[in-house]
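hey m, so remember when u said the tokens were messed up on ur end? i reran from scratch. heres the input so u can diff it against urs
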Amino acid sequence: GIKMAKYTRKDLKVMQAWPLEKKIAESSKLISEWYDYYDGQVFVSFSGGIDSTVLLHLARRVCENIPAVFVNTGVEYPEICEFVKTVPNVEWLTPKLTFAEIMDKYGYPVISKEISNVIDGARKGQQYRFKRLNGEVLDKNGQPSIFNCQQYKFLLDAPFKISDKCCYHIKKSPIYSYERKTKRKAIIGTMTSESLLRLQKWLQFGSNVYESTHPTSKPLSFWKDQDILQYLKMNGIPYCSIYGDIVEEKTKKGTRLKTTGVERTGCMYCMLGVQHDKIPNRFQQMQITHPEQYDFCINTLGCGAVMDFLGVPYKTQTEVLDIEHP
């Protein structure tokens, strides 16, 4: 039996403030423990993005023959696929359904996975989700619950399906099949700084989760974006060209590292969180960098109509590009 490490928010603050060397040591220890516990029957879930590039480098310092697994979703940036081809010992998996089939069958991912799930459930008549959208759920003190989300009630009337199922079918399901087939256990590169859900899970279960339907090691949980960029720079590791160069920029608080290309990769057509993107947002950038995929996404897949409904811009602001193609 393995003891579960329980953490508090205070622990996380402390760990996030550690110098990079200490984070590297702690993450390496977590990977080693995972590797030993499962007698080397582990794999790295590798997306081709910078977080998982750092994760794979760390894991292969612990044991160089750990296999990596890449899901070729059909909605990855072409540069990501090109980069993954250059990495040794990577197994490629393909989802059963395409992104277009998932949109058609289940619906579009909008705002966040949680909101998409609430809309989908409320439309299917689930009372609790409907109450959340009406702002009617109360906490134990009789106050409106933090799970209410009445600002998104307008999505109930959207003229398209909305669902949180995409991620499962396009990414998780192929990985789960691989786990069943090989009996290997996953090491993934998620960080608690990325979402509230990831933070809550980490506080509950820690970095290495042994007791679970899908045991998972998350050795980068307490890292931050700056650590990832610093690690890449420090070790001179090749990473996907779509990120551009890693440069220093001056801010009010001093200097920080940033990429000159895209900030995040992931599914090209995913609209989750697009409402928080800095302008030019991911779709406005795609219009310039990947015009064919942009046209397919906005027009063929119908993401343009979805963003019109959300009030999110997706055309670049320059006149030249606003001339519609005949």
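this time it looks ok to me. The longest strand covers residues 246-251. if urs says something different then somethings off w ur setup not the seq
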